[in-house]
């Protein structure tokens, strides 16, 4: 900010006080995080529930990271079963999922839904981004 | 005391400057990712680093040079406030923060972007005002201060220009595919670009070849050192040093040194308000 007069008005004073409060809050919050965080690795949980998209064989997928670190390059493989045999599969890819966050997605199979009995998660792979602090 | 209306006009200038200089970063996904990947320690370090930059810039380019430390501190805090507000509302606008996100994610994203926007606010306020008002009360720095001023403005210029590419994956990609001859040529390019800007192209506030070869080498060396160091700091902030070999880190520093050196030379002359 460029001042031509060193005395400040009420607006400048309010902005300054707001800035101080923001900085105090941020430092306080981050300090708390530093002491509280145990740096537990990312933990990905996947919930599958039937969805009804255009009356097709579709599923709503909820992916949640319950860990304390972000997960990177998440790859979830699904398998569609028919009478105990794999009859189809799908893959869901997410770049990043921050700690304590969730994403929702959908899988739609073109086949008739009456032919299939369940969708199961086959594998979940993900990375923990490297950090030096 | 200035009228509040004058302050509002100045804030408007600062906000527009903040957006002008940092808009690419607000639209860069690696910046959002840094917000939630970075550790709290790194975010604290980032806030302190930016605050020191703002103090330095306001000392040498944003304010009258006879301002007290209290005035400079006051202005820097104001710029952080404007940067925070601009960032918060802009990220809301583009739906990169919302209530379904964890608080950690929102805070991280806002901090990372705020710091870059605040530098833009500072430069924008100082550079986009009318010349007659802007230069009122300005005095030339003492000779002893000149070197420090040059270094600090070079740092600000390097950060301002190179921060728009530093967080991107492309820097890493270029570093990985570059052979040693490429890296050496990049260093030469950065050094030549600095020399051209500082001594051979009549930039506003630049020197001339009459300064002598010793001066040219001295300035270009300082300029490039600043570019490399700032490149490393930005790479560290954006998580580009974590888990990589020493060679890849150095290669990334060299890749980033081209925009950083141009920022430290041309950027410095551009943002210098005197």
Number of strands of chain A: 6
Mind describing the biggest β-sheet of chain B?
none
- Unreliable stretches of chain A: none
Oligomer designation: heterodimer
- What shape does the CA trace of chain A take? elongated
Could you give the order of strands across the largest sheet of chain A? 1-2-5
State the order of secondary-structure elements of chain A, H for helix, E for strand: HEEEEEE
**Mind summarizing the main beta sheet of chain A?**
3 strands, antiparallel
The number of strands of chain B is: 0
Structure notes:
The complex is a heterodimer of chains A (133) and B (274). Chain A is of the alpha+beta class. Chain A has 1 helix and 6 strands, in the order αββββββ. In chain A, the strands form 2 sheets. Chain A has a 3-stranded antiparallel sheet, with no helix packed on it. In chain A, strands 4-3-6 form a 3-stranded antiparallel sheet, with no helix packed on it. The longest helix of chain A is centred in the first third of the chain and has 27 residues, at 10-36. The mean pLDDT of chain A is 85. Chain B has 274 residues and is mainly α. The interface between A and B is large, with 41 and 58 residues.
Topology, pairings included?
The complex is a heterodimer of chains A (133) and B (274).
Chain A: H1 10-36, E1 44-51, E2 57-65, E3 71-82, E4 85-97, E5 101-109, E6 118-127
Antiparallel strand pairs in A: 1-2, 2-5, 3-4, 3-6
Chain B: H1 4-26, H2 29-37, H3 40-62, H4 69-93, H5 103-127, H6 131-134, H7 143-162, H8 169-177, H9 180-200, H10 213-237, H11 246-271
């Amino acid at each position: 900010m460029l001042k031509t007069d060193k005395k400040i008005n009420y607006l400048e004073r309010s902005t300054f006080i707001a800035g101080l409060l923001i900085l105090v809050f941020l430092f306080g919050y981050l300090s708390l995080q530093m002491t509280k965080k145990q740096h537990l690795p990312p933990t990905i949980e996947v919930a599958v529930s039937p969805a009804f998209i255009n009356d097709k064989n579709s599923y709503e997928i909820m992916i949640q990271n319950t860990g304390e670190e972000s997960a990177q390059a998440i790859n979830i493989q699904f398998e569609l079963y028919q009478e105990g045999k794999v009859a189809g599969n799908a893959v869901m890819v997410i770049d990043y999922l921050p700690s304590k966050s969730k994403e929702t997605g959908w899988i739609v199979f073109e086949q008739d839904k009456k032919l299939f009995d369940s969708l199961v998660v086959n594998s979940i792979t993900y990375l923990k981004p490297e950090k030096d602090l | 005391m200035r009228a509040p209306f004058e302050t509002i006009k100045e804030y408007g200038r600062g906000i527009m400057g903040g957006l002008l200089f940092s808009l690419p970063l607000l639209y860069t996904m690696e910046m959002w990712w840094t917000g939630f990947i970075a550790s709290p320690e790194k975010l604290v370090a980032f806030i302190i680093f930016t605050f020191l930059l703002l103090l330095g810039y306001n000392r040498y380019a944003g304010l009258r040079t006879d301002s007290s430390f209290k005035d400079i501190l006051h202005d820097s805090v104001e710029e952080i406030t404007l940067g925070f507000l601009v960032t918060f509302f802009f990220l809301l606008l583009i739906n990169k923060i919302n209530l379904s996100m964890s608080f950690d994610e929102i805070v991280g994203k806002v901090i990372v972007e705020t710091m870059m926007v605040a530098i833009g606010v500072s430069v924008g306020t100082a550079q986009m005002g009318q010349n007659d008002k802007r230069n009122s009360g300005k005095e030339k720095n003492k000779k002893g201060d000149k070197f420090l001023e040059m270094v600090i403005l070079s740092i600000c210029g390097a950060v301002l220009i190179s921060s728009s590419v530093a967080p991107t994956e492309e820097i890493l990609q270029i570093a990985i595919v570059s052979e040693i001859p490429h890296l050496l040529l990049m260093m030469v390019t950065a050094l030549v670009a600095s020399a051209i800007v500082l001594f051979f192209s009549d930039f506003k506030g630049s020197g001339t070849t009459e300064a002598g070869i010793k001066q040219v080498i001295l300035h270009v060396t300082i300029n490039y050192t600043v570019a490399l160091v700032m490149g490393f700091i930005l790479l560290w902030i954006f998580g580009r040093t974590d888990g990589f070999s020493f060679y890849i880190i150095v290669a990334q520093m060299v890749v980033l040194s081209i925009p950083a050196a141009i920022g430290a030379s041309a950027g410095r002359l551009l943002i210098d308000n005197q």
